[in-house]
Queue: 2 jobs
Job 1
Amino acid sequence: MKTLDIRVLGDPILRTETTPVAEVTGELRQLIDDMFTTMYAAEGIGLAAPQVGRTERLAVVDVEGAKYTLINPVIVEREGSARAEEGCLSIPEVFGEVERAHRVTIRALDGDGKPFELTAADLLARCIQHEVDHLHGKLFVDYLSILKRRSALNQWEKQKSNYPGLIRKVVPGEHPKKRSAEHTTTAAGEV
Ligand code: NI
């Protein structure tokens, strides 16, 4: 298992439509393992393949122990709505309030390629919607009002030079205390 580099805002892969996974190969299993390792090392709660430079329709999530591999996920039902703050591992230090469905039902394949259906609410539902968006080239900042988006992107411009080549190197345990505290107070965490 290894830690993968995370692509940050500006890398065109984050805007690229993914390709459905046809088969769970050994290589894909390796990628899934590496994505979990990377997500935990970056202290995120979700990670989608384009964020590590890949085009497979694949994401991983772990929201308070609810751990899922989502291959070819499709949202089949949405219910209610909720606003909460979100962040993204590909747009470090930038946060914004996004309205999402409160509850969603998805169909996907698990890490063994077995179909499953899952109904999730609250943070897990939010995280899943954020990851499914990633698989279609969509980012949380796209939902912000023009003014809030401008301010978020200005915020990002100040951060951008910290990520040469639009790559975020993930070093486990590197996160300063302050950021960990932010993570626990931020409703959605970084996904
Ligand atoms: Ni994200």
Job 2
Amino acid sequence: MTNRNGAGSELEPSVGAGIMDRLDHMAEISESGDILTRRCYTREHRQINDLAGKWMREAGMAVREDPVGNMIGRYEGRKPNAPAIILGSHLDTVINAGRYDGSLGVLSAIDCVRSLNERGIRFDDAVEVACFADEEGVRFQSTYLGSRGMAGCFDQSLLNRKDSDGISLSEAMISFGLDPAHLKNAARDPSDVRCYLELHIEQGPVLEREQLPVCAVTAIAGASRMMVSMLGEAGHAGTVPMNTRQDALAAACECVLLVEDTAKRYDQAVGTVGQIAAFPGATNEIPGVASFSVDFRSSLDSVRQTAVSELQRDMSEIAERRDVDILIDKTHDADGATCSDWIIEQIEGAMTDLGHRPFRLASGAGHDAAAMASITDIGMIFVRCRGGISHSPEEAITREDAITGADLLLRTLERIGGAKN
Ligand code: HGY
Ligand code: MN
Ligand code: MN
């Protein structure tokens, strides 16, 4: 294979070589010194957008920030105003995150455009890199906020949602320099988009088990999320008889185990309670209020929908039996998305070109590609991660796999773009 730096030169592959250093640089932009957390519309979001913008300009792209706070680079095609092949992923993170989730896809995409630019390659179509503002939805329970903004399906009711400091999404956007009244202008016309292609770490153990560095993704699981509050009666831990208590936290704990039992009962489903809090939260007080999150997913939308309505019914029965009130706030509901066969075939063709065994895998994790599927054909490439660990500082990939992933993304892009010098 001729090295990308020109005919047969022995230099490192031009694509992906610097990614690990850049990932370390990005990981330093965090809301707290000792753990990696980067939520949307924070000072750190501004810093990372500026850094990504700088790297995209250096790669030969024109750069803009859209009305939702996505940072977008555009590398023109030979035809003016041509539709774009959009690459990308997200720049936000969960709390105490790993440094590869989202960032690896953004940097790999930037490196692909830099490689095209260095070799003077232009397709008929333009190529864009989308650095999405908020995929995790950690600050405002606003999953896929950036990509949904680009796909024109931003839920305006989210604007009133408040973060843990009581700041609304609308206020956060304004302080970030955005105008919520212009959000709909972020929406792309589907005719301006050829397709969307995202590289991401697998966040699961399959590629490691298969001893494969990369693979094509077939589908992205749908997810339902909710915040549940149990409203009981606060009281003295020493004086209130057990048979008269309206203990909100005990009711919530019974529901937490119900989430686990329900997911186990349905094949191909997973259920998680990631957050729980009790109020007033003192050792010697019976909790009057308890709230917890539910994240429920399945590769089959029908299974998820059936299981979630069953869950809501059974949690309400627990509340009634324990004489507490229940409030269920549905914060996210996304059906699964299917990757387009023609893009999967291009990815697998590129894998064969690179000497790798073609392999396909469905994604249990959600990705911005699921939102982009509402306006264009989507494809995804997974890169192996150690032990399948993600959403943890233990997340890890090898430099070789990062380069292989970026190279596969570039070859797939060139196949789709029909590279002509
Ligand atoms: O939660 C997810 O599936 C993704 O990491 N946002
Ligand atoms: Mn994630
Ligand atoms: Mn991600």
